[in-house]
Amino acid sequence: MQRTYISETPQKIGEQVTLSGWVHIRRDHGKLIFLDLRDQSGVIQLVVTPKSPAYEAAQALRPEWVIQVSGTVKERPESMRNEKLETGNVEMNVEELVVLNQAETPPLPLDTEGLDIDEEVRLKYRYLDLRRPRLQRNIRLRSELVQRMRSFLFGQNFTEIETPYFSKTTPEGSRDFVVPSRMYPGQFFALPQSPQQYKQLLMTAGFEKYFQIARCFRDEDLRADRAFEHTQLDLEMSFVEQADVLAVIEAMIITVAEGMGKKIKEKPFPRFTYQEAMEKFGADKFDLRTEEDKQNGVLAFAWVLDFPFFEKTDDGGYTFTHNPFSMPKPEHVESLLKGESIDGIMTQQYDLVCNGFEAGGGSIRAHKPEILKAVFKVMGYTDEKIEEDFGHMLSAFSYGAPPHGGIGMGIDRLAMILAGEQSTREVIAFPQSSSGHTSVMDAPSEITSDQLKELGLQVKKSE
Ligand code: ASP
Question: Hey, whose CA ends up nearest to atom 8 of ligand 1?
Fold first, then answer.
C-alpha cells in the first residue's frame, strides 16, 4: 500500500489515494455520510455516498475509530471550501474502507482545546489528550526547537555527549531523588540535579565544546513552570570568558526563535546587573514586554549579570546563590581565598530572562582546586567533607583543567513560551500532575516486600 498523508491531498486532485487515520468527526447529511479523517499531518473531509461499496461499513463508524480509506481526491466547488482546513479545497470520495481498530467513546472530549478539563482526567488518558491538535502542535514545536538548537550547535563544532543518570548527590540548591542500590544495601545513587560536574569533567577531558539535551531531577515543590524532572540544554565551553558564552547563546536563541517565526523585542539582548534588576523590577526575573508585545507573541530576552556569590543562611552561615562551581569576579578571588568580605564577593554568573521567566543560567567556573575548595570552606564544610563529596573534582582540576564556563537552558520553559502556553505541562508529552503523580502510570506506587528485601530497605509508616 502506498500511503498518502492528508496534508499531501491538495496536490493529488483527481488521483486515487489511500489514507489512514482516525475518525475525527462524523456527520450524517440525509443519505450522505461526511467524515473528518485525522492523521498526524492534518484533517480532510471524506464523503461516502449510498452508492459506494464502503457505505455500509461507514455507517457503523464512530469517533476515534482507526480506518484506512481509498478513493479519489476531488476539488471542492468554490462555495463548499473550508478556509479553516489546510485541505479545505479538497475532499475524498471513499470507495473502499477498512476498519483497522474500533474505539470506545473517549472519556474526555478531543475536539476542544482541553484547557477546561480536569487535569487528572487529562493525564490519566494522556495518550488521548495528546491527540488534540493543540498538543500535537506543541509537541512538534518542541521537537523543532530542539532540532534547531542541535543544528545550530553542530554548526559551531559542538559535540553532543551523554552523561550518567545514576550518580552522586550534587549541590544545586535542591533536594536529590535517590535510587537504592541492590548490590550495596544501604547505599544510594542520586539522580543528577544537572550534569554540572560531568560537563566540567568533560572540559578537563579536552572536549572543548560540549552540549547535551539533558534530563535533570530535582525534588522540589511543584509549580506550573516546575516539575520533578525537567529538560535542559546543557552546554559548556573551554578557554572562554563570560562574553564568549553569552555571544554563542544569544546567537543560538536568535537563530532558533526567528527561524521559528518569532519576533524578538530587542537585539542585542539588554543587560542588567543583578542590582539594577532588583532596583528597577524588584526581582531578577522580569517581563520587558508591553501589552501590545504580549498580544503579538513577542519574545523579550534580557541578561542579568553580576550576582552576589553567597547569601546568608538562617543559622548565620553562608550558602551559594546560584552555583558553587562558579568563579568569583577576578577582583574578588583574593577575598574568597582568604575567606574575607564574603557578602561583597560577586560571581561570574549570568541568567537569561524571557517574558518574566528564568530561561537559563550559567557561569564561568572555578577551574583551580584551591578556588573550589575555598567556596566550600565559606559554606562551612570541613576538609574531610570537601574531600568526601568533591575530592573527585579537586583531583580532576589538579591535572590541568582549562578555564571554562557554560549554561543550562530550560527547554520546557522555552517551549512553553514559544507555544504561548501558561504551563510546561502543555509542552511535555507525559508530565507529572500538580499533585506529583506521573501521567497514565500514576507513580509513585508501592513496591513488593520482595523488592524491599532485595534492596535491604524497610518502610516505616509515619504516625
Ligand atoms: N548547572 C546549572 C543549572 O542546572 C546550569 C549551569 O550553570 O550550567 O542550573
Answer: 407
